[in-house]
Amino acid sequence: MSGLVGHLDGYLAVRRALGFGLARDEKLLRQFCGWLAARGKESFTAADAVAWAQMPQGAPSWHAWRLSVARSFARYLVGVGWQADLVPAGLLRGGASRAVPFIYTDAEIEALMEACGAVFRDELRRLSMRALIGLLAVTGARVGEAIALDAADFDAAAGTVSLRTSKSGGGRKLPLHPTSTAALEDYLADTSAITGRRRRPDESLFLSAAATRPIYCNVQNGFHKLTLACGIAPRGGAKPRLHDLRHAMATKTIVRAYQAGEDPGHALAVLSAWLGHAAPAHTYWYVDQSQELLAEAVAKLENPSPRHASALLPERGRRRP
Question: Does the annotation count 167 as an active-site position?
């Protein structure tokens, strides 16, 4: 392997073998390598990395993120013997803190779905937003995973949905409750009646107003309109976000495990696989700020009960998307 770009390919291959997606990292690092090449450099110093990280306009958190990507690549280069500087941590401050998750109640989720009929004029968008919110609420899928679904990824006969993309690189197949399966079948039938034809297997499961795959920002903006229409306001330092449907599903799942006297550690491990996390440690953050979960944990400590080995997640999915 020769040249900086060759080492970049090796770095990406190694980290992807460990389960990382790195789509954004790859884009940034190829830009970084191009920036260095334009300056006749086949390696870089910490000063080079800082200069590149601060090039675009943006928040300090964005500059800190860019530098962190370059820092990780620098560690790899030093490890394989390429002449490069280690980039010390803390050179750029401003790393973004995690947003406080907004845990939707079941009533709020139902209200958001019902409000689609009043908020959206276009029938395709109305049906799609309702079905999408329902699917996110019962599966905890990432928004990007859901809008990337093709019609073939939904298996009505098996009652499953296959998520092909995730941050950790691998896909996963999730079982749906029969009511959710029936609701998605109804959605496909209703939208096919509007478009005048059945969806091809390689076409998007969810449709925009133009009968194409939805764009993330449009979905996000539409969801914001729904929260305003439903009067769902920030509480406890948390703002209602589309992604928090995932947080709500995760938190409620662990709360049910506590209430059923199940082993929380086992529940967390199963939930981690369900959500598509590379490790349970990434799942812990989803639930560690929930007041409801804290109360259940305290109650369990005060009144310990035997562990149960019953399955946790097959009971998910009772809400119709």
Answer: yes
Residue tagged active-site, from 15, 71, 130, 142: 142
Q: Do 183 and 134 touch, CB atoms closer than 8 A?
A: yes
200 is catalytic: no
Q: Just give the CATH number of 100-321.
A: 1.10.443.10
Q: Is the dihedral of CA 73, 77, 78, 84 positive or negative?
A: negative
Query: 22-54: buried (b, 16+ CB within 10 Å) or exposed (e) per residue?
Result: beebbebbeebbeebeeeeeeebebebbbebbb
Catalytic residue from among 63, 252, 277, 319: 277
For 148-177, write each residue's pLDDT tens digit.
999 999 999 999 999 876 555 567 888 899
Output the DSSP codes for 17-59. Answer: HTT---HHHHHHHHHHHHHHHTTT-SS--HHHHHHHHTSS---
pLDDT at 281 over 60: no
Query: Using CB atoms within 10 A of its CB, is residue 157 exposed (0-12), middle (13-18) or buried (19+)?
Result: exposed
213 is catalytic: no
Catalytic residue among 243, 256, 266, 300: 243
